[in-house]
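We give this protein:

***
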Amino acid sequence: MDHSTPGRAMDGPSMVSRLIGLGQGAMKIRRWLMASPFHLLSLGHRTPRSFFAVAPDSWPGNPAAGQRLLAGEFAAQGMAGPVAPGSDDPPWRRPGSNPAWLEALNGFAWLRDLRDTGDPVAPQLAAALVDDWMDHEFSWSPVTWARDVLASRIVEWIRHYDWLSSAADSGFPTRFVYSLGRQRQHLRRLSRKSLAGEEAVAALKALIYADLAFLHDGPRYEKSLDQTLTRLARFVKRYVAHDGVVAERAPHVQIAVLRHLLDVRAALASADRRAPAEIVAAIDRLAPMLRFFRHGDGGLALFNGSWESDRTLVDLVLSRSGSGEGAPAMALQSGFQRLAAGTSLVIADAGSPPGRGLDHQAHAGTLSFEMSAAHERLVVNCGIYPGAPREWRHFMRFTAAHSTAVIDDTNSSEITDHGALEYRAGNVLVDRAEEQGSQWLDMSHDGYRSLFGIIHRRRLWLSADGGDLRGEDVFTGPENQPVKVPDRRFILRFHLHPAVKATLAQSGQAVLMRLPSGRGWRLRASGAGIGLAESIYLGEEGRQRRTEQIVLVGQIPTEGAVVKWALTRMEG
């Protein structure tokens, strides 16, 4: 895979609250203020005294990870490190530790891993670690008090309270409620401005949990709960598109947001309250689109930073959504398309990249597609698993890491040094038709127009029996005018799943592919040279797997270029 990077290449309290809400230009002031004694004192103002356990956690944990914790080691995001209460080397902000590992540790989602070991020592260790955190993290730090980490910790502490307190000393509830009250107050201040994307849903969910837990401590929590529910309802109404896709356009965010909203609904039900209609409606829109993003193997498609995910968890989330609606054929507003026939499934990204503020993890994969045959993946994007090395997270955003066309080793949307997208593939058009069971997609984008004066148009056709996928990739000037910068090299990439074995055949005029089941597929093409090249697959959590890609290579003359290809199932 080409990783060149030039140009666009692929490369008091009220005063405290107002100051914390300042923008990026005041970051140093904010950090100084949050670490100040005045801020620390203000967090303890009117700390609640009563507590109500909200919706005990019912999501499954990982007992193997819990056993590892019982042995004194915490593993997350592909890393591991020693963790023990009362240690001379507290782990919570340990120097030199990987930031992703620290975030996972301080988020406390691992409490369910300990819980599901069933070991009688597990709640004792869990309570001791919570106590250790409270002892060492009384003061603010950008690591342990970051908004997303704080939101996760608040929810996990509240949901596991009964289990934690069953093995703790008699003073634990008082210490626990005091710390939780301070954390809630800090999160409220952090969440008054600049909330966006999935983090907004997570933060508002945490505040709802905290207000429900402290509801009997006074009317101010009732008022706060109503305000936060109203904020969340208004936010999800615009954040979850009418077609049910989240604004980040990423399947892994899709399942995370749906899970957050299911948690909110369950927490409200535990307090004999009904979720606002907007939240219920968002759940009903999210669930069918989560089914849309599933391949035949039950895992998720790899668009915009996603990985396959835990199939059992996807099943559980869909089951708890209560939605029986099947996967739609398309997402009109977000641009994703789905072709299904026989045992074949094709999912294509025919939409514009996420908007500003939600694009820091977005991929330049416009018009890429993935294909599975029955329960086996055939054509994929490279994907990226959580906790992958930073350089891989960067490279996997490139157009070259997707099954689409790349011109002159240049991304279809520029990925800037600060992570956002510029000169993005806009004006993405798609037309769909069906005839006698066969399905057509006609898609185009103008991401290469500003540099080369080239429009990329991709047509896909899937036969009624699913045994034949045909494609046509056209490179022309706008409105069929001559290409402004001719003789640019194009590469059409078909990244293959690591389980697929590929060989060149017919004197290099075709590629034969064999799946683990023994089924075979063949790719032929005209208008470009055909070959095999190395690739990498990061769609499985914690793993980097070598694989191959089929490449169709050619030049784009002034009059443009047309490449036709066919993926055909081989009988016998």
Q: What stands out?
A: Residues 299 and 310 are 7 Å apart (CA to CA). Residues 219-239 form the longest helix (21 residues).
